[in-house]
Amino acid sequence: MAINCKDNVITMETRNSTYQMKVEKGFLIHTYYGEKVGDMDMSYLSRTIDRGFSGIPEGVKGRDFSLDTQLLEYPSYGTGDFRNDCLRVEYADGSQVTDLKFVSCQVKDGKYALEGLPAMYQGDKKAETLEITLKDEFKNLEVVLYYGVFEELDIITRACRVINKGQEKVSLLRVYSMCVDFYDRDMDLIHFYGRHAMERVTERTPLHHGMQSVGSRRGYSSHQYNPMVILCKHNATEDAGICYGASFVYSGNFAAEAEVAQANNTRLTMGIHDAQFKFVLNPGEDFTAPEVLLSFSRQGLGQLSRNYHKAIRENICRGKYKNARRPILINNWEATYFDFNTDKLLDIAREAKKLGIEMLVMDDGWFGKRDDDNSGLGDWFVNEKKLPGGLKKLVDGVNDIGLKFGIWFEPEMVSEDSELFRAHPDWALTVPGRSFTRGRNQLVLDFSRQEVRDYIFDRMSEILESANIEYVKWDANRHLTDVWSAALPAEKQGEVFHRYILGLYDFLEKITQKFPDVLFEGCSGGGGRFDAGMMYYHPQIWCSDDTDAVERLVIQYGTSFGYPVSTVGSHVSVCPNHQTGRSVSMKTRGVVAMAGTFGYELDITKMSQEDKEEVKVQIEDFKKYYELIQRGDYYRLTDDGKTSNLVAWQFTSEDKKEALVNGVVLKTRANPVFITVYLKGLNPDSVYEIEGQSGRFTGAALMNGGYPIPVMPDDYQAVQLYVKEC
């Protein structure tokens, strides 16, 4: 049993961690989360003291037990815990005090599911569920805490449901999904910030007194902050030290907050951001908060990442392409932008076929009146001026060449200059009578409304059924402003942000189930919705609109902390690069793109013969190393270039018999210092060969002595070492 409830002590165990709570004076107290300690009652670590200005709960004798000083499992607002709370409720009488007491716990085989929300599923793994019920007796408000324990994966999931069992309606002002309290503050916060075309840049800062928080109020998880954070000890490195991760399985507004309180204890909370959040529950109604994936590692940040990689790859991602090899594709966007027709696309397809590319993806501009980004969104019918004879003629032509075919959609958006907006202006998120904010000259459709979703679903289905389409790139190119729904009364406008995401998930579930053989790739201006929630529907997501290989080193490095390579959309693009103007070799662009799903984003008809030959080699190499790259253990061998002139990473097979080391030497220098790369994850006693190199090496030698990188004759030169056991 991974879960044990005995003598008011509730213990959960994974392969390498223990998570424990205890019922004390009617409250659910958090006692421990960390390295495995068995069923030892860890509440001996809890200490009490009469600390001034800390309220004492009713019925507690003495003055040394206060909710303000205890480690709590799910803190609520208004009863003496002045730290950050998880639950804030406004009742019909205007009060906001909620006093949650322990009622019961129940252990179930298998993993719980969340209605209407993505979550880890059990699959072929062993999993157990713990349900703990808390209740405010005065208002008859019940909270059910859900814990899913994946012992093998070292993952514990958290979610909760709030149920109004009273006789009056209540308004939920905050419902976070989880809280973890720690006894001390000696940790760093690692988070991943950014902007469009530079997502998930790594930042590590020591915790300090007060609140450190990241989050999104943009309607999406966003380019600016990612809903995955890490707390780790100051001395934690890639390979050693205590680390805790929290990844939110949700694609909308979020908050992740770390607070160091008066007694130097630390509280980490995560959930839906409470900005413009007010969810009304009538008697008998309930609200389910999304899931958080928790993981612990004592073997440093690298092992924590590998825990998440495996969990997301195997128990979040679903469908045909969860394990199947994905086609190597070429996307026409940076080749043509809006200026294309059938003949131009077929020319690209013919050249692509010669080089071994397997799919042509037609990007934005094939529908409605769409010659730039000022019009046409929402009008999902083929523009036959560009595609004479229609979509099927083009797709059949591409298939006859020997390539699969994919297509771009932006289903959640509408242009003001479109037939759809002229017919249904109230379907967009706008406030009546108020001028509205534009983004990319488009508005956001109100996906909280069933009729809006049904209309777009029908139009999208018609397109997908009209031809042999095997891939969809799902884009979303602006964030939510003027958030107001014509379908909801005034008191429920605080529900729109969340209902939008629920509607989006409902749409995605239906479309992916209706078209199970289609590979769906997520995109929001690149990586603006790169989160575990979207990966439940999209097994891969376009990592960034920045295709510059040097910039991608930073973006893909940060992404690797929480997400597997199999979810990272990464392509080789043209040089000079369209975003930065930088030029790097075709080899370097290929090596960097191999830290992802791999493809091309350029006009292949204009490539030199030398580059075409390099493409052939890249494609053969990627096919050869596919399983190793997509399913191997991932190791960061360096940082993202902040402290080293080499950025390197490694894929290692589970049996440790082969590995692939990829790297880029950033700058060439006069009289250069030598660079050595230190491999990881090999069997120290095994003997290995490096393809194309002389000599044999023990795993211990390659990991401890390293391997010399040759002096490079130019900037941004790539190295790739295939290592195999003899």
Question: Can you walk me through this structure?
Answer:
The mean pLDDT is 97. Helix 10 runs parallel beside helix 11 (609-631). With 726 residues, the chain is of the alpha+beta class. Keywords: Glycosidase, Hydrolase. It comes from Candidatus Blautia merdavium. It is an enzyme of class 3 (hydrolase).
Which class best fits the helix and strand makeup? alpha+beta
Can you tell me the residue ranges where pLDDT is under 50 for at least 5 consecutive residues? none
User: Order of strands in the sheet with the most strands?
Assistant: 6-7-8-9-19-15-14-11-12
**Range of helix content:** 10-25%
Family: Belongs to the glycosyl hydrolase.
Enzyme class: hydrolase
Catalytic activity: Hydrolysis of terminal, non-reducing alpha-D-galactose residues in alpha-D-galactosides, including galactose oligosaccharides, galactomannans and galactolipids
Protein name: Alpha-galactosidase
Give the helices and strands, then pairings:
Blueprint lengths: L2 E4 L2 E5 L3 E8 L2 E9 L51 E4 L10 E9 L18 E9 L4 E10 L4 E10 L5 E13 L4 E9 L2 E9 L3 E7 L11 E6 L9 E7 L4 E7 L5 E6 L7 E3 L4 E12 L2 H16 L13 E3 L1 H4 L5 H14 L3 E4 L28 H11 L2 E6 L3 E2 L4 H5 L19 E2 L5 H17 L4 E4 L21 H19 L4 E4 L9 H4 L4 E3 L6 H11 L8 E2 L2 E2 L12 H8 L5 E3 L7 H23 L1 E4 L9 E7 L5 E8 L9 E3 L9 E4 L5 E3 H7 L1 E3 L7 E9 L1
Parallel strand pairs: 20-21, 20-30, 21-22, 22-25, 25-26, 26-27, 27-28, 29-30
Antiparallel strand pairs: 1-2, 2-3, 3-4, 5-10, 6-7, 7-8, 8-9, 9-19, 10-17, 10-18, 11-12, 11-14, 13-16, 14-15, 15-19, 16-17, 23-24, 31-32, 32-33, 33-38, 34-37, 35-36, 35-38
Helix pairs in contact: 3-4, 6-7, 9-10, 10-11
